[in-house]
Every structure is written in C-alpha cells, then in structure tokens.
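Q: Structure tokens for this one, please.
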Amino acid sequence: MFGKKKNKDKESSASSAAASASAAGPQRKLDKALWEAEYNPSPVADLSNCGLTSVPGEVYVVAKFKQGLLLHTNNLTKLPSNVCRLDRLTLLDVHNNQLTALPSDIGLLQDLAELYVANNKLTELPASLFSLSKLCTLDASHNHLSQLPVDVGQLQSLQTLNLSHNTLASLPGAALSALPQLQTLQLFGNPLPGLVEGLPLQDLLRLLIKGDNGSSPRLSKKAGSASSSSSSLPQDGFQDNLERRHLQKEAVLQQMRKSLLEDDEQLTKAFGTVASSKARALEQASRLLKAKE
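A: Here is the predicted structure, written as tokens:
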C-alpha cells in the first residue's frame, strides 16, 4: 500500500510540475519578448504569439520610443486606449485576436501608416480612425463589419484597403472616389448586391467585388445609368484610376503574349532543325545498310 501511495504522489508531483511548466512557458516567452523589445535596437516591439489575454503595462514602457508594435496572434479581447498614447507608432498589428472594438481615440496615432486588424470580431470602425491622414494600409478583413462609413474618403494617403470577408451590403461610392492614392481594393466575400449598374471595366471589377456565393456581379451595359443605391461605385476619378490600371494590365499581358509567341517560334525552329538532322542521319544510315547488302 505504501508503494502505491508513493507512486500516486510521484504522479501527482509530475502532473503539477508539467502544469507549472506549461503555465510558465507563455510567461517566459513574454518575458523574453519584453526584454528584446527593451534592449533590441529594432524599431519594432514584437509581442506577437505570446498568449496574451490583456496588454501588460510593461508594453507601454518598451514600446514608448518604437515605430512599430506587433500584438498579433494573441487572445486579446480589448485594446486599451493607452496604446493610442504611443504616438510614434507608424505600424500597429493586432490581427488574429478576439477584439470586438478598437479604441475610440485611435485617431491620436497621427503618424500611423499601417494598421492590421484582420481576423477579429469588429462590428464597426471608430470615427477617429478616419482622421489618420498618413494611413497607407488598412486591413480589416475577416471581421463583422456591416458598413463602410463615408468618412473613409478622408484617408487621402490610403493605398491599400482590404475589407474582404465581412458583412458589407453596400459601398459609399463617392467616398471611395475621393481616395486619390488607392491602388488595391479587396471586397470579395461580402454580400454585396449582384447588380451594379453603370460600370465599365467589367473584368477588373469582377476581381474586386464578389458575393458570398463566389459569383461575379452582373454589370449593366447601360452607359451612364447609375444606381441610386450607395453600392454603386462612381464613374469619375475612381473609375479613371481603375481604367488606367486596366490599360496598364492589358499592355503587360500583350507584351507577355508577344514574348510567348516569340519563344514558341524559336522552339519550333529549334525542334524542326533537330528533326531534320535526325531524318538525314537515318537516311544516311539506311543507305549504308543497303550498300553493305
């Protein structure tokens, strides 16, 4: 009986030690990340994948003079407003967490150029976000956003906007047309209307807008018939920008086709030469055999 009791005690101690080691693992990883963020000359503080459920106070100390803060791939349910006091940040990455909202004063990060909030549970974007005049990249894909505010038109430096896999049912066309630097717009995986009237550049728009069923929107062939719905994109500056990129794309494709045709011709000539050489060699061998006979 004493032997059995000792074995149980050993098993219990081993289990406790394993549990303690398991719990200490994330803490050690966090401690290491904090140490590196404080003493590493890198301009980015990386506390990603540290098992965080909240932002520890030490983060504000080590990231105070950093230009980038990586908090992605954790279990954060809330992003404290204190993060918005890190006014030197140009990069904030909190994707792949459990956030239901962003701080209302995120607009205080006036130097912010890149914001990644994908794979969270956001239902809206705070109004102050649209005052970030230096914001170039906004990735809010894979959330629960049901509308895109018209204030998006204030993001005059925005180049990349990813809103794919949300619940958007309409688009503020006039606001999108007010984005002179916009180069990439991703909207697939949203329940956008299947009919978008008065829009040319059908091939390009099929790449930009896709419904949940994966089908492309049916585009009206009526020139100048704009839908009254806010889901219709404008036909002015935004359309011109798309058309320029469409023409550039076509030029590149034509050049690629030309290069492929030239390669095909060269290959055909090369194979033809080889085939002719083989035919001559076979003919000579046949003659030699006949002469020997």
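A few notes: The mean pLDDT is 74. The helical segments are 2-39, 58-62, 173-177, 202-208, 237-292.
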